[in-house]
Recover the amino acids of this structure.
């Protein structure tokens, strides 16, 4: 076997003056880190299994625990960081592809944090959202070129189907299988209550969730998991998943250990073996093929559902978007390279794709130049972390945002990034019944509702501050943004001025 | 009348309710100190850990026909107007007849050998301690008929 | 002549149950409670604790000081009923009063059986042990030099022994049976308890009786002669049915009652130790002197007297007692098929008839025994639950999910 070159990353620090040996940490750790030693009459911990999910820390009634990064360090090396070295050790040990979960954690520029929002002073005064009406409602879908009204003032022009949202934020695609049934229930219920939508991801749709269909976007991915006619009719819209920000160019990956009976039934696949979606849809090799699929889906649903095409943000995203806009899609969803995932090869997650901020700006700009911006709505995702990110995204041209990681954080995720093990201690990224139990949808739904309510209010405050009272007026309003610490080129791509200009 | 009910599907068997119950009824102000004593506080409800990952807490049902009260040989157990069943610690002589009468096994023995059970500790909070501290809403305090 | 709607004879568990039962249904009808003993209702089993020094006289009250007032119950304490005229519905009291009643509850309890032993009537310092008066009498005599002899190794005899063992010089217990606690334990468990009590200093003479009492000496049938300073006769109690018999009510092993506690005479009810009732575990009629049953019968009688039809048909023997640190739980009938579950030093024996638990004996520091008792009470078919797990530890998890839901998730 040789020497184990991997030292545990975390240390479990227990304050024995506070520990009352209640053993709650022991009972609640799916990784079996804590145990009670009856001879020593103390709690002991095996830190090699700890993933820093913070479950024990949160539940300890006396706050006797903390998890710290080990200060056992390799010699400092700006090029060969400890993490990098450990990854080589891991691969030398396993011979396999490194697998990771959640979004790209590496040091790359975060453009949201380099853009600043305007506020009104003196002229064009601020609007107080608590006193005056603020329109955060958004309609996603193809907008007509002209509108004709009849004598009574009603719209005569036939409109393409739209998704109506009370606020410009939706829950992004997270498949049933990567996350638990209880997580899906919570997302569905919160979306319904708040007047927005959630996305089934490529795991199909649970029978019990059909009742929330009006607030569901059903996804058709390359593996076509769970796709059948009832499924297509069940949702408010259909999303064709061409790519995902976390792993552009490859398909989805659900480890076999997360595929039990229910997941198997919903996805219509066998239990226990890895479910790997192919990279391309094997019936789509060109924009024309995409157009065919879009219209097959529209035919199958009687043209009642808008069709979304989701792509990853990659180098030629603007050209791709232009093609998609012309292919008959109603909405384009772009997923930036920081987007989360249940499981992806580490190298692809960390090195492939481009930031959503730049992709969004490029796509919006290109569609305007080609005068087809109104043919398609743009939804962006891939690390929208706060209401200010949403405001900036809309100002850059988005119609609405998808949130994934933020939603999971709201219901308890601590970003320990071990989703692929299927032992999520918070009951989110797991299928183990005893762990899924930990996510009570009543509690989770309330927290998601709270998150959206809070963000909605903040968006209104920021808009009000700018003297804007509707999302429509904020959309693509690049003058409301200024860059800070950005190069000429970055400013040019984002089409915003530098702060001070 | 509001009672404590357990939603078995959400109970994780973490036992936090037992610790918080014991502390809330111990008369102590510091949970660490309470449990560092030689005689540790005793919980008034009991979490059963069954097979197949099933867990649930059992506490006094505050029955309308309270067998414990009917059987008590000293009159230490009584039911108040709200319907909550109380134990007068001064009158209890620890004969344990009530433990033998209770169909739920809701009574347990104190350090001083008298019996104790859930009396819906709402004096200190608006909600019993177990309900307040359950991390998964498995224990609730509500009216049900 | 007094006229009362409800009259209750007896001031212990069943009588008090009667008052409570009546008041649940009828808040205004007049109640008169008559008791031979002159005290406010007190918990009879506590006389041994009082003798032991574990409770004060004040703490022995079965209900608080204003119980009668709160329940608008008039009392005649220290007064005996001399006659019941069932046809005229009248009672004669020994203080000269007469009372006319609409509904009568006889809850006269039991009287100690005094065996016909040669020399018993003249015997000095000889007591039975069922009243406060007896306990007071003994306490006056009891000191560290006392030699105590107790006839009867049943519940009363042993509780008396427990009360005195640490306050006297010597203590002997005599019983004709071949085991102690013959009414509630089998031979094996009785031996186990006896060994514990012997360790604490009690001396037992089993399969023996007292032939003669003379000059404060007891002459035993096995030849031994025991001097005594205090002699307690605790060979059992009999239901106090003399008044009922005189009134020509049907009696057998106690006053005969139906499940509504009605006797053979209209408008006369009976409850508690003085009755014969159906033991659902042994499936036969018996006199059961069990406090919880007495109280429950009393309440049911009261409710029926006040016009609310109620039945009580779940009576079975149930006993919880501690004897010098050893705790014993028994319930039901011990004649079935026995399953013993070892648990270290503790004893756990279950008695079945087919799939039904009929009785059990637990000796040790057990928790939640009521779950077992409820199996008897509800006549649970034990093949529908996980009986193996249940016998190891009493638990609701042995029931299936739906049963548990009914127990824990709806109001009771």
């Amino acid at each position: 076997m040789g020497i184990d070159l991997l030292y545990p990353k975390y240390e479990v620090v227990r304050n024995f003056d506070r520990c009352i040996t209640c053993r709650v940490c022991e009972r609640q750790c799916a990784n079996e880190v804590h145990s009670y030693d009856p001879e020593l009459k103390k709690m002991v911990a095996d830190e090699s299994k700890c993933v820093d999910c913070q479950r024990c820390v949160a539940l300890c009634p006396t706050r006797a625990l903390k998890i710290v990064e080990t200060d056992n360090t390799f010699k400092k090396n700006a090029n060969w960081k400890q993490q990098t070295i450990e990854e080589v050790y891991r691969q030398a040990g396993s011979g396999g592809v490194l697998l990771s979960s959640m979004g790209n954690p590496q040091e790359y520029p975060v453009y949201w944090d380099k853009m600043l929002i305007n506020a009104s002073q003196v002229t064009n005064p601020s609007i107080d959202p608590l006193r005056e009406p603020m329109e955060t409602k958004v309609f996603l879908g193809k907008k007509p070129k002209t509108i004709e009204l009849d004598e009574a003032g009603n719209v005569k022009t036939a409109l393409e189907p739209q998704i109506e949202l009370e606020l410009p934020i939706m829950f992004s695609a997270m498949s049933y299988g990567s996350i638990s049934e209880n997580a899906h229930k919570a997302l569905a219920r919160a979306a319904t209550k708040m007047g927005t939508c959630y996305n089934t991801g490529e795991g199909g749709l649970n029978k019990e969730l059909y009742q929330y269909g009006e607030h569901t976007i059903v996804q058709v991915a390359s593996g076509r998991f769970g796709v059948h006619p009832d499924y297509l009719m069940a949702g408010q819209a259909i999303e064709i998943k061409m790519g995902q920000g976390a792993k552009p160019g490859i398909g989805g990956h659900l480890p076999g250990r997360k595929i039990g009976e229910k997941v198997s039934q919903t996805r219509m696949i066998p239990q226990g073996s890895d479910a790997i979606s192919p990279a391309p849809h094997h019936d789509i090799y060109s924009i024309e093929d995409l157009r065919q699929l879009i219209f097959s889906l529209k035919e199958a649903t009687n043209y009642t559902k808008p069709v979304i095409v989701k792509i990853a943000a990659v180098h030629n995203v603007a050209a791709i978007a232009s093609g998609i806009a012309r292919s008959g899609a109603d909405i384009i969803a772009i997923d930036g390279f920081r987007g989360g995932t249940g499981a992806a090869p580490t190298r692809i997650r960390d090195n492939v794709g481009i930031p959503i901020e730049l992709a969004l700006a490029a796509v919006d700009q290109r569609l305007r130049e080609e005068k087809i911006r109104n043919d398609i709505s743009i939804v962006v995702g891939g690390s929208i972390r706060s209401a200010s990110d949403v405001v900036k995204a809309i100002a850059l041209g988005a119609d609405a945002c998808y949130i994934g990681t933020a939603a999971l954080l709201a219901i308890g995720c601590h970003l320990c990034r071990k989703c692929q093990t299927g032992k999520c201690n918070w009951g989110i990224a797991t299928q183990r019944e005893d762990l899924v139990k930990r996510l009570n949808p009543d509690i989770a739904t309330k927290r998601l509702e709270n998150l959206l309510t809070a963000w909605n209010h903040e968006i209104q405050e920021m808009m009000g501050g700018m003297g804007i009272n509707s999302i429509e007026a904020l959309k693509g309003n690049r003058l409301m943004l200024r860059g800070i610490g950005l190069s000429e080129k970055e400013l040019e791509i984002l089409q915003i001025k530098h702060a001070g200009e | 009348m509001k009672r404590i009910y357990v939603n078995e599907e959400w109970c994780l068997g973490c036992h936090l309710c037992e610790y918080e119950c014991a502390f809330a009824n111990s008369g102590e102000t510091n949970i660490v100190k309470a449990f560092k004593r030689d005689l540790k506080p005793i919980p008034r409800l009991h979490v059963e850990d069954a097979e197949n990952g099933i867990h649930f807490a059992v506490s006094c049902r505050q029955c309308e026909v309270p067998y414990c009260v009917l059987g008590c040989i000293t009159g230490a157990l009584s039911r108040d107007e709200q319907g909550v069943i109380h134990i007068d610690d001064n009158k209890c002589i620890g004969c344990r007849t009530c433990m033998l009468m209770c169909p739920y096994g809701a009574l347990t023995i104190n350090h001083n050998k008298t019996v104790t059970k859930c009396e819906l500790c709402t004096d200190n909070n608006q909600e019993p301690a177990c309900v307040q501290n359950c991390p998964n809403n498995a224990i609730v305090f509500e009216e049900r008929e | 002549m007094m006229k009362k709607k409800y009259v209750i004879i007896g001031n212990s568990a069943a009588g008090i149950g009667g008052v409570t039962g009546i008041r649940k249904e009828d808040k205004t009808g007049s109640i008169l409670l008559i008791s031979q003993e002159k005290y406010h209702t007190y918990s009879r089993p506590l006389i041994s604790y009082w003798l032991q020094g574990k409770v004060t006289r004040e703490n022995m009250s079965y209900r608080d000081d204003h119980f009668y007032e709160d329940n608008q119950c008039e009392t005649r304490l220290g007064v005996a009923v001399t006659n019941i005229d069932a046809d005229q519905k009248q009672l004669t009291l020994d203080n000269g009063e007469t009372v006319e009643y609409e509904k009568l509850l006889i809850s006269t309890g039991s009287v100690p059986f005094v065996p016909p032993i040669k020399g018993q009537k003249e015997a000095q310092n000889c007591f039975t042990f069922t009243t406060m008066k007896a306990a007071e009498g003994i306490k006056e005599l009891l000191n560290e030099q006392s030699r105590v002899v107790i006839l009867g190794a049943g519940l009363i005899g042993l509780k008396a022994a427990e009360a005195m063992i640490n306050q006297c010089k010597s203590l002997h217990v005599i019983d004709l049976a071949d085991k102690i606690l013959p009414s509630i334990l089998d031979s094996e468990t009785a031996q186990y308890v006896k060994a514990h009590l012997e360790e604490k200093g009690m001396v037992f003479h089993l399969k023996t009786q007292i032939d003669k009492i003379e000059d404060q000496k007891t002459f035993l049938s096995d030849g031994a002669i025991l001097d005594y300073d205090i002699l307690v006769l605790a060979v059992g109690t009999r239901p106090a049915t003399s008044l009922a018999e005189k009134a020509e009510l049907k009696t057998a092993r106690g006053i005969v009652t139906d499940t509504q506690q009605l006797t053979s005479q209209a408008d006369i009810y009976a409850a508690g130790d003085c009755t014969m009732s159906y033991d659902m575990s042994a499936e036969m009629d018996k006199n059961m002197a069990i406090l919880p049953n007495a109280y429950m019968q009393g309440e049911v009688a009261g409710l029926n007297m006040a016009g609310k039809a109620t039945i009580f048909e779940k009576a079975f023997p149930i006993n919880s007692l501690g004897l010098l640190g050893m705790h014993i739980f028994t319930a039901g009938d011990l004649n079935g098929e026995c399953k013993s579950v070892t648990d270290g030093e503790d004893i756990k024996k279950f008695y079945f008839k087919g799939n039904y638990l009929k009785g059990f004996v637990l000796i040790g520091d057990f928790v939640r025994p009521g779950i077992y008792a409820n199996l008897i009470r509800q006549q649970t078919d034990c093949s529908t639950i996980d009986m193996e797990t249940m016998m190891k530890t009493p638990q609701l998890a042995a029931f299936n999910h739906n049963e548990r839901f009914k127990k824990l998730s709806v109001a009771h």
In short: Residues 2-111+238-305 of chain C form a domain with the FAD/NAD(P)-binding domain fold (CATH 3.50.50.60). Chain C has three domains: 2-111+238-305, 126-235, 325-408.
